[in-house]
Amino acid sequence: MRGAVDSGKRDFQAHTEFSGLTRIFHWLRAFSIFGLIGTGFYIALPFLSPTPSAEPTLFAQAYIRSIHLILGFILIAISIFRVYLFFFDKEGSKEERRSFKQFIDVKVWIASIKTYLFIGKHPHIEGAYNPLQFITYFTLGVLTLLVCLTGVALYGNVYHSGLGAVLGASFKWVEVLCGGLANVRVIHHILTWAFVIFIPVHVYLVVWNSVKYPNGGADAIISGVRYQNDLKV
């Protein structure tokens, strides 16, 4: 808790919602995903034509693939550490863990859905997320896991020495499970479209919450602070 703000009618208590590391990793992951989507679509369908040259120095596809790989490993590293913070960060992720209690509460689910349909009041939320937000971010985590697994499997089939050799052998089961490398590519591409769909929905819901309940919704992921009285969304 950071203090109180006088709204003119009642006091709003400022609470730390997200730790500094949580916020940093959120934005690093966001920028990585945007970069991966852009470079991934280019790799699937190259549209740049470098100026012809007799010298082997124009490697647009190779450079973009390298950026894609770097961003992919950044996303993997951030996601692993983000999961670690969720379970073991005693203070910074405490509010996120508290959200699970109401995630399994059917009454809170119904009340939250009514709120989004403009037919009911928002229930008091204990934790960082309401049930719809919690399941959305959990689904994002599953998508991230799947896109990283398929991405590593593809990486191991292109680079056959060093790290590529180790990952190729370790994640060969992904290729087998998917029924072949061609299917791995298709699944990886479909998962990319899932991210493309998720992003505008996520932004819309965050902005919607911030406009309807202006107590630090969108800016909480920047400042880390949410203001509370008797209602939290």
UniProtKB/TrEMBL annotation:
Taking every annotated instance into account, which residue ranges of this chain make up the domain Cytochrome b561 bacterial/Ni-hydrogenase? 18-222
Task: Output one GO MF annotation.
Answer: electron transfer activity
Compartments where found: Cell membrane
Is the keyword Metal-binding assigned to this protein? yes
Asked if Nucleus is a keyword of the record, the answer is: no
**InterPro entries assigned to the protein according to its UniProt record, in alphabetical order:** Cyt_b561_bac/Ni-Hgenase (IPR011577), Di-haem_cyt_TM (IPR016174), Hydrogenase_cytochrome (IPR051542), Ni-dep_Hydgase_cyt-B (IPR000516)
Question: Biological process GO annotation list?
Answer: respiratory electron transport chain
Q: Pfam families of this UniProt entry? A: Ni_hydr_CYTB
The membrane-spanning stretches of this chain are: 27-47, 67-88, 134-156, 190-208
**Could you tell me the membrane topology recorded for this protein?**
Multi-pass membrane protein
Ordered alphabetically, the record's keywords are:
Cell membrane, Electron transport, Heme, Iron, Membrane, Metal-binding, Transmembrane, Transmembrane helix, Transport
Main localization is: membrane
Q: Which GO terms describe its cellular component?
A: plasma membrane
By sequence similarity, the record places it as follows: Belongs to the HupC/HyaC/HydC family.
Recorded protein name is Ni/Fe-hydrogenase, b-type cytochrome subunit
What lineage, starting at the top, does this entry show? Bacteria, Pseudomonadati, Campylobacterota, Epsilonproteobacteria, Campylobacterales
